[in-house]
Amino acid sequence: MATETAPEPASDPDSEPLPLDGITVVAVEQAVSAPFATRQLADLGARVIKVERPDGGDFARGYDTAAHGLASHFVWANRGKESIALDLKDPRGREVLHGLLAGADVFVQNLAQGAAARLGLDSAALCARYPRLVAVDVSGYGPEGPYAHKRAYDMLVQCEAGLVSVTGTPEQPVKAGIPAADIAAAMYAFSGVLAALLRRGVTGRGGRVEVSMLDALAEWMGHPLHHTMHGGEQPVRTGLAHAVIAPYDAYPTADGDRVLLSVQNDREWHRLAQQVLERPELAEDPAYATNTARTSNREKTDAVVAEALGRLGADEAIGRLEAAGIACARLNSVAQLAGHPQLAARDRWREVESPVGPLRALLPPIGLPGGAAPHMGAVPALGEHTEALLHALGMADAQISELRRDGVIG
Fold first, then answer.
1. Which of 44, 78, 161, 305 is deepest in the core (most CB within 10 A)?
2. pLDDT tens digits for 185-215?
3. pTM for the complete prediction?
């Protein structure tokens, strides 16, 4: 029996293409969840064709004007894509879309529940028509059940998933400061596409992928969920503190910053007391010597730590904590993140083109050393690639002019 041999490695590793080079994605997407998923695919080399409404496009384009006149959400989630403006309610617009789908590997949509099915663009219909297509439905609550048609914005799903109930202070629940439900759904849609493409490589068939924002965020709630279901009590909200560890919080420093520290065991408490607090007697004091005691006396524990750090500047506090082997961090602002020395030292910043000129953007978190650099293409203007894509489908100028006149394209 003949045996297969492994392919020879490329002679020049730097010539290795990105993993999704040659994959075409068509996305009827809006807001954050689907666009952020397809941006991950674009970063890894996929060609992503973003289908937008001619009358304004993806409504996330209008969220704000913070990115030099562009919407910050849109800039973040849509680089590296081609934009075609199509009216999918018009049969001619759907015909164009199917022309794109005939050559596509992946289709992603996050329209309102039922809208894709009314247009014949639900995953079941598309997979029947295009057997090699991976078709992804991203929804708020899934395709069935009493919540299937309920509006699902990020904050609402954060509340339904219980995230808000465990975030904040004892007095006040708060939502996460980032769109956690959108991001969770996006990353499961992204990984679902990769898994489905791997399966297609074996079977030759694409298939359906379903992701809901509630399912995704409920999975991320695993720790408090299991704690509550099996332990009988919901974890309490503790702000920046930890429910069962002390000291574990952010403490003000003399220069107005805040430094967070975490003492994970009693040996670390000994070092903190001796080397940072300069109160060696607290190392063996029964009121502080064990984590159980420190947690029971949390207010006193926090007070002695706050008093000591309040006499130090943030740099000196961080230096002492690190010298003592105590885990610590600065409580940075978003502006401080943008100037973070670790990101600068690792050369994590690039510029991407946009309709308003170059914009700073971070490299994608997935590193693939030894191959091609991530694709960080331009942020597209609405309908920027419409004519080029229609010409590629074989459409004549007269047809394109007619569609534009009738408002089918933009």
1. 78
2. 999 999 999 999 999 999 999 999 999 999 9
3. 0.92
